[in-house]
């Protein structure tokens, strides 16, 4: 049984302009210890999915239907107090903006110790010990003295480390990281990602990493789900996604990243922008921006089809009419892997 | 691209220092602090080119961009702009080799003269949400510079607004809409249209795409490139994302703590030789390729505070290639660890701030006098990734003395022992720009004549040295 299983999750927000379906019939699973990436542009429903897992959707939002199974137990059927036992304990979250995630009027140490006392029933002294140990583990120098520092005395990277320490404090089964490095500099980002990878390997924690940065996904994740307009459009192991993408949106995303060493003059773009979720296009929601869209795409809504090669065909799936043979002209993209592009300072790499 | 070989905009030792505003008593006691945001920057921007400026947050990129246009007043130094002389007479004309252009010192201009020059020099802001007035329609936002500079009115003004909206890829019929009705990418296009309204020569783009999604980012980058070609614009492109800067720039300046560490053409920056800081930055870009296994160089510590920047080369506190003193024969990682130890002793008041006590040291935490010399030695070497014995005997005996001092007399005695003996040339000597090619300058002692032999191989770093681990 998978550790976390999300089935047919639908989340809507009732706004004055209309009903926004932020997450639309989404299903995925995360295995124990797996690193699962969720990629997409802003407004794709990545963060709403994450908040649903913790039942943190607030009015006017509502989880309409579906189930979220953690070890077979449905979080959506639990009482508030049962959910509170799960939050921060078995499912923990790292928020994008560490500065707002930390309470400015409590010391860093106290905020972490609070969770430990609450969930693990440690006494004052033991919780403090454990907190110092955690701060040390996430690479905060002089953890003993920094315990009583306030958040504003930490730099951005250190705040994010403290938030990671807090998330790992109760040894969670699933760690949801919502854009954990977006607010950080590239040098700090590299260190934080490395830390996250080491610690989650050490504790065998499953990670759901939400990001828009395909470079971060490539570095950390085992499996990836690409989201568009509240739906998953492609799910694949990370290597297949990068070397053999099946959905035109994935291809568009890949080709719009500027790559170091690529000397072509223009970046390829996806024309237009994410549709309004109040009024999602008929048929395939990507068809207004898709270069391969045909008549059929405006009418028929594609379903998730297994498209993988070889024995693990079920590993990769995509939501495109191409794979139900409903397209007349097919998808006109092909993926070329340019070996030269991988050559980058400082030198020798790649196979 | 224009064939002009004379720069259109250049600076001479441009400097911007902020003074922290303390309270009344602080002022009375003279406890003012100076933040050295930008220090002695000399740059040149040629017509039709894009100069990328990269660096971590807090390195002074934005301050530099704003000081260039005097959106903030520079503390020192000058900014020059070569204006096409048929526009308007200049109060201090000076002959220029270009003939049709004349040199103007922006830093000495009156505000009304400066305002006239804003038709040539424009700025695109980072945040497309806060840089547009929410109470004005898009037409009025773009029309405002036309009104201020008296470029067009009535029917002409409307035509010009529609033309500009069309140029940046927006629907001209949306001119009556308000900014909140547009997405982030579209708002950035409005910001660009506003900058283009006065038909400028130079646009300073301050992180124009960092708030945007990748697919929209690509659209805006393409638009900026198209506009450059169409109107022969020169850009100064400030960003923290190296892959974006690489894509759009002709030349790149790498900034660290208010100074340029390296300046060169894009190819030169991205190929050897590198400034050690550039090297670390380049290695840290996450590559969108799951099979890519590059060596990432992790810089230790934080960017030092610009209030009290380090002496000598500002990067020496974090540099993985910092030069060892000539009198010792030390491995590079050992030396890096020793120097880090020394720098941290300087900051520390107590032993516990230097080393991490483990579970088994519980009794020591309560009573520091119970910490034995051997245990402290072990803890220090552990913390700083130093081997049980340094490869150089002289250096080892100093370290050993220093740890004894730390044990017996505290951090200040230890500091005194370390301070005089372990001194890197990087701490005492200001690096000068070394010219690798006419367009490529690196400010690093390793690239000068005196120390070039000392340049160690970065790849020697072992895994066991925590400080600066190069990961396989």
In short:
The complex is a heterodimer of chains A (351) and B (472). Chain A is an alpha/beta fold. Chain A contains 13 helices and 12 strands.
Q: Explain this structure to me?
A:
Chain A: It is a peripheral membrane protein. Chain A: This is Peptide ABC transporter ATPase. Chain A: Pfam families: ABC_tran (PF00005), oligo_HPY (PF08352). The complex is a heterodimer of chains A (351) and B (472). With 351 residues, chain A is α/β, with parallel strands linked by helices. Chain A folds into 2 domains: 218 residues, P-loop containing nucleotide triphosphate hydrolases (Rossmann fold); 115 residues, P-loop containing nucleotide triphosphate hydrolases (Rossmann fold), CATH 3.40.50.300. Helices cover 32% and strands 22% of the residues of chain A. Chain A contains 13 helices and 12 strands. Chain A has an 8-stranded mixed beta sheet, with helices on both faces. A 4-stranded antiparallel beta sheet of chain A has the order 2-1-4-5, with helices on one face. In chain A, helix 4 crosses helix 5, helix 4 packs parallel to helix 7 and helix 5 packs across helix 7. The radius of gyration of chain A is 21 Å and the shape is globular. The C terminus of chain A is likely disordered. Chain B is of the alpha/beta class and 472 residues long. Chain B is elongated and about 85 Å long. Chain B has 2 domains: 275 residues, P-loop containing nucleotide triphosphate hydrolases (Rossmann fold, 3-Layer(aba) Sandwich), CATH 3.40.50.300; 100 residues, no CATH class. In chain B, helix 6 packs parallel to helix 7. The two termini of chain B are 42 Å apart. In chain B, strands 7-8-9-4-10-11-13-12 form an 8-stranded mixed beta sheet, sandwiched between helices. In chain B, 34% of the residues lie in helices and 16% in strands. Chain B is built from 16 helices and 13 strands. Chains A and B meet through helix 5, helix 6, helix 7, helix 8 and helix 9 of A and helix 6, helix 7, helix 8 and helix 10 of B.
